[in-house]
Amino acid sequence: MVAGRVRLPAGALVQPTGGRTEQEHHMSRLDRLARQAEQKLARVRARESSALSGGQQARLAAATTVIVAKGTRLKSSPAAERSIERVWSEAEQSAAAELDAIRRQQSAQVAAAAEARVAKKTKGWW
User: Any idea what the Cα angle at residue 16 is, between residues 26 and 119, rounded to 5°?
Assistant: First the structure.
């Protein structure tokens, strides 16, 4: 046997969560979702169209087409420009709201875990 390694018998089942409790697994999932939401918000703020939904990308493309078509005729297109700004602001608000909801869920999970620890400690006290 090599030091530091444990050889499992053939067919032994290994816990898929890596030995973590269900609550720890759920919290790590929330951490991953929060990280993804933060990245999406950063991409929206950097005006990367890949961060937008399909419908938002279509609206952005339509407004851009109007701007290009009017630009070739040397005309301004304030409505299309406002439409583009509206798409980006809606996307940013949506991404920020999603991140906020995930963070609220994380804090509720932490509070529930703390309550469970306190309940476990007080149960053994008497």
Answer: 40
113: its two tokens: 């875990």
Instruction: Read off the tokens for 19.
Output: 């030995």
Of 118, 113, 108, 58, the C-alpha closest to 84 is 58
Tokens 């993804």, located at residue: 36
The residue extents of the domains of the chain are 30-115
Neighbouring residues of 20: CB distance < 8 A, sequence distance ≥ 6: 28
Through-space distance between the first and last CA atoms of the chain, rounded to whole angstroms: 46
Q: What pTM, to 2 d.p., does this model score? A: 0.70
Which among 36, 34, 64 has a CA at the least distance from the CA of 49? 64
pLDDT by 10s per residue, the chain, length 126: 455 565 655 655 555 555 566 666 667 889 999 999 999 999 999 999 999 999 999 999 999 999 999 999 999 999 999 999 999 999 999 999 999 999 999 999 999 989 998 888 888 755
